[in-house]
């Protein structure tokens, strides 16, 4: 598992550097879109395995439309897409679903939550990329969050003694969480010293602090979903990492934080 994790990272990192850096934007946004579909499919398999095909196809189509309007800078249409994510599944279940009340509510909740939880944040990466030095901020985002994951993993392995939230994720520790935060701050400092898209001031310190804490909450949130269903990984698409959702669970919570930071301060 440990070796597979590093092999996957070694293969993926150069590809990501090209796609986010000099690569064509249509390719980058297509990768974001396809990743959102893969993660959304894994989410449905966890929380709403019997979700009707029509609802899945509808939500995948709305996901495409959301990416399209962000690509075309038509952000004002986004609330309409989000509303359809809620209204159409609810109407469908009201008229056609015939299972028990609890099963209906579970499926309905999963169909509405999935796109908001997964697709909307990943689509916001398109908006981040369109801002000044946007691709560098995407590198910053990925570097900080993946540094947090790596730092938390190894700090937890080496020093972990006190459980962070044992009911949800028995292996996560406070020592790991603190280690992830420290590695994230160090990564942000080195990144900004080299690329100089922003000075490392108290704004960045708070940004990284919030992003890291929120990312760890996102990790715990996905662990809660998997623990509720009695599964270890969301999928098997990334050797050593599990599924797409396992790899981006913390990232999903952090993307909006960076987006609003850029709107307000850059």
How is this structure best described in words?
- The chain is mainly alpha-helical and 266 residues long.
- The protein has one domain (2-265).
- The protein has 9 helices and 2 strands; from the N terminus they run H-H-H-H-H-H-E-E-H-H-H.
- The chain has helices spanning 2-20, 25-47, 53-71, 78-96, 101-129, 134-159, 174-195, 202-229, 244-265; strands at residues 163-165, 169-173.
- A two-stranded antiparallel sheet has the order 1-2.
- Helix 3 runs antiparallel to helix 4 and helix 6 (134-159) packs across helix 8 (202-229).
Biggest sheet strand order reads 1-2
* Tally of contiguous helical segments: 9
Mean pLDDT: 87
Structural class: mainly alpha
Unreliably modeled segments: none
Short account of what is shown:
The protein is mainly alpha-helical.
Task: Itemize the secondary structure elements and their pairings.
Layout: H1 2-20, H2 25-47, H3 53-71, H4 78-96, H5 101-129, H6 134-159, E1 163-165, E2 169-173, H7 174-195, H8 202-229, H9 244-265
Antiparallel strand pairs: 1-2
Helix pairs in contact: 2-3, 2-5, 3-4, 3-5, 4-5, 5-6, 5-9, 6-7, 6-8, 6-9, 7-8, 8-9
């Amino acid at each position: 598992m440990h070796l597979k994790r590093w092999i996957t990272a070694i293969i993926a990192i150069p590809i990501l550097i090209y796609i986010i850096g000099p690569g064509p934007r249509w390719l980058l946004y297509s990768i974001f879109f396809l990743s959102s579909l893969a993660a959304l499919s894994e989410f449905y398999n966890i929380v709403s395995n019997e979700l009707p095909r029509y609802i899945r196809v509808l939500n995948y189509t709305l996901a495409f439309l959301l990416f399209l309007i962000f690509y075309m800078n038509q952000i004002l249409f986004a609330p309409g897409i989000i509303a359809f994510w809620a209204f159409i599944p609810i109407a469908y279940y009201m008229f056609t679903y015939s299972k028990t009340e609890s099963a209906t509510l579970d499926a309905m909740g999963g169909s509405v939550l999935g796109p908001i939880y997964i697709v909307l944040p990943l689509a916001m990466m398109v908006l981040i990329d369109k801002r000044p030095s946007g691709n560098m901020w995407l590198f910053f985002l990925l570097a900080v969050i993946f540094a947090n994951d790596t730092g938390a993993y190894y700090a937890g392995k080496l020093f972990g003694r006190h459980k962070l939230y044992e009911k949800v994720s028995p292996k996560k520790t406070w020592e790991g969480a603190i280690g992830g935060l420290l590695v994230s701050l160090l990564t942000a400092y080195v990144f900004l010293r080299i690329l100089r898209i922003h000075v490392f001031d108290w704004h960045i310190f708070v940004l990284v602090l919030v992003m890291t804490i929120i990312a760890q909450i996102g990790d715990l949130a996905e662990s809660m979903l998997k623990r509720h269903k009695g599964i270890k990984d969301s999928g098997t698409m990334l050797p050593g990492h599990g599924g797409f959702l396992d790899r981006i669970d913390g990232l999903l919570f952090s993307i909006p934080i960076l987006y609003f930071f850029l709107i307000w301060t850059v």
